[in-house]
Structure formats: structure tokens, C-alpha cells
Amino acid sequence: MDGKTDLMEKPAVAVRSRRQKPSADAVAAEQSLYASRVKVYPKAVTGAYRRAKTAVLVFCLSLYYLVPWIRWDRGPGAPDQAVLIDLSAGRAYFLWIEIWPQEVYYITGLLVLGAFGLFLVTALYGRIWCGYTCPQTVWTDLFMWVERVIEGDRGARMRLDQSPMSLKKAGLKTATHTAWLLISLATGGAWVLYFNDAPTFIVDFFTGAATVNQYFFVGLFTATTYLLAGWAREQVCTYMCPWPRFQAAMLDRDSMVVTYEKWRGEPRGGSKAGLAPEGLGDCIDCGQCIAACPTGIDIRDGLQLECIGCGLCIDACNDIMTKVGRPLNLVTFDTENNQEARSKGLPTKLRPVRPRTLIYAGLLLLVSAIMVAALATRTTMEVNVLRDRAPLFVTLSDGDIRNGYTLKILNKQRADVDYELSVVGIDGARLVVQDVGESDRGGPVVLRAQPDTVVPFRVFVTAPRGALTSDSTSIQFILRNPVDGTGDRYDAVFVGPRPAALH
């Protein structure tokens, strides 16, 4: 019995142990859906891709900071800033092009062009936009350069962060963040310059004469630049930006992307300079490609959404391959099809022209052509007519029928223009413009439109009762500039009594 009792008690003990309440740490480890950020310490590298990245960075930053200072003569009374979005006046100026609020579709066209251009570039070269010209990447690269100059390269920064607080550490961190804030302030201020006259705003900003809104937006853009480029960094590319999730739909096996030549590099192992490792690949597993990556990934694991296509891992790897006497470009820009061909010793080729790229290029050209045609055929004036809803019509004492309209003339020229307004569609119809005058039957009325503004007029159209054959008659308002012959037409409706009541 004792033996049987022991055998029966052991399972009971085991069951009780399995039913014990798990510890708080175990529950947290099991249920946690959040991974703490592992700070990335990219190392400085030299090479072709680093030089290209630096050149693009200098170009983009120069363009951003200098464009608001470029002047463009538009004549008297017009702003002379080459690129300006004047919200108070409702205008956007791009060199010789002036966009009115009614022409916001041009902005839409630019956004569509940007989208198709990004699709095409991604299909050809992967995330090269992200690696070289994305504002987040450009400013992050600048911030990391400042950090490297002040605190040192990768190893020095890691040791500094792991060391206890001291006067030296506090001084270095203060210098770094002060430089970041100054760059962020210049960034926020430069962005506001695109919405205000640059010289005037700079004087107002430093003399305290700027508006509360201007100070607010400078502060807002300063804070976002400091936060995104100084603190968030690769987190923006990995978690906040939607483009990595879209890029897979744009890529195919002929897209040029950053690639690890696994067929050549594996199996990994150590190597001495000048000696070819027996039974091992060219990769010596030094980890320098990881150390150089701004997002901290291992490109040897294949293409990942965190990869921004900057190519700095290529420079880092080539430096090591040179030192160990192995062929360069173990990590390289290449296509998936070419990698497969190289692994089999077959010839390679690039296929930039393929259905995907042809579609994107075709859409890009189509939208560009539409935009150019719209700009080439745009007029210097527009007319809009709104018919009165109450009353629908008025019967005059002589039996004629009158309709009222509100006519608005948009004069885009910078001088007064006298337009001739006439109406067609009803025989014998005459115009009366409130506070302006009356036309003879079928004749025009002269309307003066002030420069660079929308001018409203109250217009009355009177038609002989006998000229109406329906309760609704289509008419056209014709506005013409007699000097240059330009003009515009607007279709409208003249409403009268029902046909049975006309006779």
C-alpha cells in the first residue's frame, strides 16, 4: 500500500505544481507585444556610396535653405520671391507660374506626378529615394554627422552612453543637443520662409515683430525636426513610414536593390589577409555591414522593410574585402535574377524596360502632358455665374420676363481690364448690370475688373415674353477682352412661366 500511495501522490503533486499561479515576470514575458528600442550606433564609412550620399545631402539642404532667398521680378505690386505660398493673398508662386485657389488641381497634379515618379524609381532601384533624398533620411544623416563630430564614432558613442554621468559626458551631450536644436530651428525657420517674404520675416522674427502664428509654426517644425531626426531616427523608417509596406508591390526580380551574394559568401568564417579560406565563403562574419547600417539590420538576412537602400553596408563590406584580399561587392546593388544567374555562372543583364516600368513611365508622361497643356492654355480671366433661386423670375409691367444672376469675374492680370459682357440664346434679350448700366438689345455692357482679384456684379437678363418657348431656356454669358480678344463663356439657364401660360 505504501508503494501504491507514493505512486498515487506523485501525480497529484505534479498537477498542483502545474496549476500554480505563474509569476508576474512570466506573464509579462508571455503577453508583451512591445519590444523596447535597441539604439542603433552607425559607424562612419568611406566609399562611393558614402560620397554620393554626402553630395545629395549637401545639394538637398542647400536647395531647402537657399530657395526662399531667390528673387523673381513679377512687376509692381507683386511679391518678388521666386517660390512663395502666400496664404493671406490666396496665391502660390513658382517662378513664372502663379496658382490661384481655383487652380488647386495643379497641386493635385504635382502630387500625382510625385507618386508615379516614386513608383518608377522604386521599380528600377528599390528604396533609393528613402536612402538618399527623403527628408527624414537627409536630416537624420546630418544629425548623426554632428553627433559623430562631437561624441566620436560608433565605439566612442557606445562607451559614452554606457558610462556614468560625469562633467565630460554632460558637456558632450549638451553640445550635441544644442547643435541639434540650432539645426532644427534653422529647419523650422526655413520652412516658414516658404510662406512669408524671407527678408521681411527674418527681421520680424529676431526683432519680435513676427506674429504669434509665425512663432508657433517655427516652434512646431523645430520640435518635430529635433524629435524625428534626433531621437526617433530609424523608428520613423521602420514603424511610422507607410512606404516600406508598399514597396513590395513595386518591386520585382529585375529591380536593383542592396543584395548580399549569399552564393559567394556562405559558409561564413574567419580569414587572414591574402589567404583564401578553404571550404568557406568570402564573408568573414566581421559584422561591419551591420555596424554601418543606419537602421541596424543585417543585410545578409535578405531584403527587409527596414532597409532604406543607402548602400553604406556596401562601402563597409568593400573596405573589409580589400583588407582580406577578396573580390569586392560581396554586398552590392543587383537584381534577384542577376544574382541567380551569377550563382550558376551564367551571363547577367539589366532589364530597365519591362511592363511594370513602361506603365509607370507612361502614366508619368501622360500626367506631365496634361499638366503642361493645362498651363499652356490657362487664361488670364475666369467667369462664374450663379442664378437667383428666389424668385425664379419676375414678370415686368410690359409682360417681359426678368431673371437675376450674380456674375463674378476673376481678373488674373495686374491691371484694370474693361470686359464686354453679352448674352446669347434668346432673341431680343437685354442686360442690366446694377450700378453699371444697361445694354441695347443684343449689345454688350462694359464691366471694369480690378487687378488680381475677384469682382462680383449683379446682372439682370430681360427677355421678351414672345421669345420664350419653354419654361427653361439655355443661354450663354460671353465675357470678352476687346484689347486682346481673349474671353470666356459660361452656360446658364433662363427660367420663365410654363408654356401654357406664355400665350
Automatic annotation (TrEMBL):
At the top level, the lineage of the source is Bacteria
So where does this one cross the membrane?
52-70, 104-125, 175-194, 214-232, 358-377
Gene3D superfamilies given in the database record: Immunoglobulins
Q: Which UniProt keywords apply?
A: 4Fe-4S, Electron transport, Iron, Iron-sulfur, Membrane, Metal-binding, Transmembrane, Transmembrane helix, Transport
InterPro entries, per the entry: 4Fe4S_Fe-S-bd (IPR017896), 4Fe4S_Fe_S_CS (IPR017900), Cyt_c_oxidase_cbb3_FixG (IPR014116), Electron_Trans/Redox (IPR051684), FixG_C (IPR032879), Ig-like_fold (IPR013783)
Any Pfam family hit: Fer4_18
Looking at the record, the residues that make up the 4Fe-4S ferredoxin-type domain are: 271-302
PANTHER family in alphabetical order: FERREDOXIN-TYPE PROTEIN NAPH
Name assigned to this protein: Cytochrome c oxidase accessory protein CcoG
User: Which species does the entry assign this protein to?
Assistant: Rhodocista pekingensis
